[in-house]
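User:
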Amino acid sequence: MTNFNKNPNSGLTLVEVLIATSIILVFLLAFSSVHNLYLKTAFSNGEVIKATELAEESLEVVRFLRDSSWNTNIAPLSLDTDYYLVFEGGEWQVTTTEALIDSLFERVVTLSAVYRDTSADIVSGGGILDPGTLLVVSNVSWSRGGATTTKSISTYITNIFAN
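Assistant: Predicted structure:
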């Protein structure tokens, strides 16, 4: 009769299997936690990206309104007043009535006077008023987790077409 069990200690013991299983489980739990953090970050960045796009769109709308007619679309607007941009009837309109985008984002555009020094450089205080140039600030705000987050960008526009 032949003995097939030449080395009785050649197999895995129950303790070794439990240790290997525990190590694999720890790695799987760590991977799951990292994946959940990644998903949470990715979804929160979606709102930031959309807010940034909305802010950039508002500057483009103001440029479009300027190009269409400074005297009709830009000059009548009051400085340092919050305006909302809405697209109705196939055209952009500026209003002081609050308008939410996707029932989440509030987009506000503010126009401010620009002053220049004797070298024609823009200055924050003093200087001479430049009636053909305005500072445009676009703020997009939304509420997340009980806190309000705001994305803001700005640019200058000038009455380049004298229209």
